[in-house]
Amino acid sequence: MLNEYLNKLEYELDKRNIEEKNDILQYFEEMITDRVESGEKIEDVIASLGDASSLVTSLFGPSDHEETKTENTTNRKFEEFYDVREIKIDNVSYDISFTKASGRTVSVEYNDDEYNTLKIRYEHGKLKIEQECFKGLDRFFNAFSKLFSNDRKEIFGNYKAVITIPENSELDLNVETVNGDLEFEEIQAGRLRINGVNGDMSFDHCAFERNEIDSVNGDIEIRDMSILDRFKTDLVSADLKADMLRCEEIRIESVSGDVDLLIDGQADQYDVKISKVLKEQSYRGRGKGKLRVETVSGDIQYSFTR
Q1: pLDDT digits 0-9 by tens, 190-227
Q2: 221 and 78 in a common domain
Q3: Last residue of a domain, which of 29, 55, 72?
Q4: What is the spatial distance between Cα 89 and Cα 182, in angstroms, rounded to a whole number?
Q5: In whole angstroms, what is the distance from residue 236 CA to residue 218 CA?
Q6: Which of 7, 66, 99, 227 could form a disulfide with 62 if both were Cys (CB 3.0 to 4.6 A apart)?
Q7: In whole angstroms, what is the distance from residue 207 CA to residue 225 CA?
Q8: 56 and 101 in one domain?
């Protein structure tokens, strides 16, 4: 049964001339074998993946003869919610834009199709948004994205969502994302927490009470951001470029990503400590400001407006 499924999968990959065919086949063979060894029935495992044609279409989009059909089944949806105090997002491949709204409601506008959609639930002021992928693919998306992150748009398709947030909002944002880009424009909110893998992030004229941003490969670009409490970022190979960052306490940890900061403040009001392997640069200021940057191999540049 396993060989039969893999043969059908290989046939579907060949139809699309997928260069990574052998890696994909090996992944699914190991994944199915592991789940069977863990106690699942092979029929149930294969059923959870769906037929080979649908599986490949969900990953790489339709083949030429399926293109028209898929375009016709793509929908645009809109939902609106009142009195939202917290938004929790679990995302795989949607590009998400956050924009401000003049009203008091939070709205979510997105496209979907038969392979991917957003499941949205609201209860007691908490809005949860979760991407639903084709059944049984959640673990595969996470592993596969790391292998071929440069071609992620071709792999995952083009799914977009726009979330509007009321002006001067104090709601908390918690985002988990694998491949989707995140864009924040003129957003004011409470606590911001992002855990990202490959998607890039951009912030334009934003303000938060506190933030924590983790990124593995996705670059971060900031164009004017104010943080009331603390700006904290953990990076692996992602680059961070911040232009006009306002915050009294800035903490950045990086493995190999480059950091370029322009801090809107007076230099002698900050205690500065820059650590790179066995090298350390420090400067003690007169004020309450703190700048801490630690890296293994990334390049660090920083300056102040005054």
Answers
A1: 999 999 998 899 999 999 999 999 999 999 999 999 99
A2: yes
A3: 72
A4: 11
A5: 9
A6: 66
A7: 6
A8: no
